[in-house]
Design brief:
By secondary structure, this protein is of the alpha+beta class. It folds into two domains: 64 residues, no CATH class; 90 residues, no CATH class. The chain contains five helices and nine strands. The protein binds iron/sulfur cluster (SF4) (2 copies). The site of one iron/sulfur cluster has 11 residues, from helix 3.
Length: 166
């Protein structure tokens, strides 16, 4: 189990959407004192109470990945790994060692049907083993559909969630 603490990091309070507060992605929560903490910590929404980024719980991600240092907040989803960039640093994920590591995850992900998505504000980029797919703005009611050839991702598109058939 990780012994890490958020310390001077508050980046999830900017990059994540908080439904209970109607806080959009990419904007500081009005209750955040950036770099210091939550001004309503005892009464913060349940979404905030239950949230932990991957860096906080996975010590395989070294100190360089600390979100306020890397400008990246990593989370997992049902489909795979989501890498959220601080919109003030939209290319942070391309810097090293992050870019190479993210590509390695994509190579492994293609083989195991795990997706790796970079998110900058509302924009998403699907990272596959052989190339990246810039999907533009993906809204909450939309989903990414991959076109596969074997385990290789050869295409990707965005569709309404209610148009997807099982
Ligand atoms: S991004 Fe991670 S380390 Fe930073 S405040 Fe949020 S949970 Fe803590
Ligand atoms: S309520 Fe507090 S913990 Fe939740 S997003 Fe706002 S500042 Fe962060």
């Amino acid at each position: 189990m990780s012994t890490r603490a958020c310390g001077n990091c508050t980046l999830c309070c900017k990059v994540m959407a908080i439904e209970q507060l109607e806080k959009p992605v990419g904007r500081w929560c009005p209750h955040c004192n950036p770099g210091r903490g939550c001004l309503v910590y005892a009464e913060r929404p349940g979404e905030c109470q239950s949230f932990s980024c991957m860096w906080l719980v996975n010590e395989l991600l070294d100190e360089r990945w600390k979100p306020n240092r890397s400008k990246l907040v990593l989370t997992t989803s049902d489909d795979g790994i989501e890498v959220r960039c601080d919109p003030g640093f939209p290319d942070a994920w391309r810097k090293e060692p992050f870019g190479s590591e993210i590509r390695q995850w994509a190579i492994s992900g293609d083989a195991h049907d795990v997706t790796v998505v970079v998110i900058v504000g509302q924009k998403m980029i699907l990272i596959a083993s052989e190339r990246e797919f810039d999907l533009g703005i993906v809204r909450p009611d939309e989903r990414i559909v991959r076109e596969l050839e074997g385990t290789r991702v050869i295409g990707a598109s965005v569709v309404k969630a209610n148009e997807i058939r099982d």
